[in-house]
Amino acid sequence: MELFLNQVFSGLATGSIYAAVALAVVMIFLAIDHFNFAQGEMAMFSTFVCWALLDAGTPYWLAFILTIAFAFAFGVVIERVLFRPLHSAPVLSHIIAFLGLFFILNNGAGWIWDFTIKPMPSPFPEGSISGLISYHQIGMIGVVLVMLALLFVFFRFTSVGLAMRAAAQNPESARLCGISVGWMIALGWGMASAIGAVGGMLIAPVVFLEPNMMLGILLYGFAAAIVGGITNPAGAVAGGFMVGVLENLVGTYIPFVGSELKLTVALVLIVAVLMVKPSGLFGRTTVTRV
């Protein structure tokens, strides 16, 4: 039982990061109807910025806030400079742009900070509660839950949040109401980048900081978004926690899987959900008049 509880709590901790990445992926998907394959690299680059601030002597939580601000501005600039001109371009053009951004950020981070593995400090104390869950894992869950609560309040009760929802759901009607859809999309990019940066800063002390640190995590984030529902942000968050727990339980209790094949679980989940329920467990099925 102790092993089971340990795996569940650990899965919830890593699942909180998958939930953050999945939410960032869903926000951009709802804005431009495409997956952002560079979402993980944007988070990784912002995490390196946080590490540089910490290395310069900046207190952790100040560096954390400054990095979120940087990530937000970074996301807005990327949308305005790179993806706004591609708004009406074919899908393949978007995919090439995403892949180009992926390699630019990956190699850029290696060129600036080199490709060696760097330890990322944790703001939470060492140790654990009864050996079941560490204080850093508790902190990961707590920070992500607070962030999700703030996002819920923003989108539900603020005029800008309501305008962003309107722009994502019905751009034509939003324009008729005087909403600047283009800037709402840019704000969505900024928020998605900031959310991804939070996930990157929290997971870096666990996986260590290097340019390829987010590759597997992004795959799990995609799996979470698809399992929960790519059109449902709350469903994507639930999918993140589900994938995190399931990954740990499968890796522990199915002997031939182990830690080496846990990444395969994400791929199996993606394929299985797409076969059974393409819209995801909590997604909305879109009906189009032909």
Automatic annotation (TrEMBL):
An annotated Gene Ontology molecular function: transmembrane transporter activity
Gene Ontology cellular-component terms listed: plasma membrane
Family annotation (CDD domains): TM_PBP1_LivH_like
GO biological process, any: amino acid transport
Record's keyword annotation contains Transmembrane helix: yes
Subcellular location: Cell membrane
Record's keyword annotation contains Transmembrane: yes
Keyword entries, A-Z: Amino-acid transport, Cell membrane, Membrane, Transmembrane, Transmembrane helix, Transport
Bilayer topology: Multi-pass membrane protein
Name used for this protein in its record: Branched-chain amino acid ABC transporter permease
Species, as recorded: Thalassobaculum fulvum
